[in-house]
Amino acid sequence: MKDVTALGEEHSSLGDVAKRAARDAGFEISPDYFPDEGNFVRSDQYSFVETGVPSLYIDLGFKTDKPGVDPLAAMKKWLVTTYHSPKDDTNQPIDYETSARFARFAALLAYYSANDARRPVWNSGDFFGSKFCKENAYCPNSR
Questions:
Q1: What span, in angstroms and rounded, lies between the C-alpha atoms of 106 and 82?
Q2: Can you tell me the mean pLDDT for 15-39?
Q3: Contact 9/28 with Cβ under 8 angstroms?
Q4: Which positions ≥6 away from 85 have C-beta within 8 Å?
Q5: Within 10 A of 19 (CB to CB), how many other CB atoms are there?
Q6: Mean pLDDT of 20-49
């Protein structure tokens, strides 16, 4: 795989951190492949958002340089034929090289964020920051 997604990256300073981590792990960042599905507000990190803490949902993207491989079509087929069924088990094929690079991306994202002298903040005027930021350290003017 050549790309990752960082859902929510446009809402806070974590977007720049995600771009740096992706680059350093050998990925590019792609926008949400399924914007109509509202995955940013439906995923586990959203409970942080609701308390005013900027957060991201990261995942692999669907770009590849392997000829004849269509990762998006493969994922759609897997979702229909395997996901949350008895076939959804530990026998699923795993691309270990990509998995290791994705783990490196996630680790770098956490490392860069944790070692930044500044806390992540919502972008000024952002919907989520405006709705959930309650004058805490994550508000835009608290940098």
A1: 26
A2: 96
A3: no
A4: none
A5: 16
A6: 95
AA letter at 107: A
| Residue positions counted in the chain | 143
Average pLDDT on 23-37 reads 95
* Close Cβ partners of 90 (under 8 Å, ≥ 6 residues apart): none
At residue 81's C-alpha, the angle toward residues 80 and 85, to 5°, is 105
- For residue 120, give the nearest of 133, 131, 107 by alpha carbon: 133
Say what angle helices 14-24 and 96-114 make with each other, to 10 degrees. Answer: 140
Q: Residue 137: what pLDDT?
A: 66
pTM, two decimals, is: 0.89
Closest CA relative to residue 55, chosen from 64, 63, 46: 46
In whole angstroms, give the CA distance from residue 142 to residue 136. 7
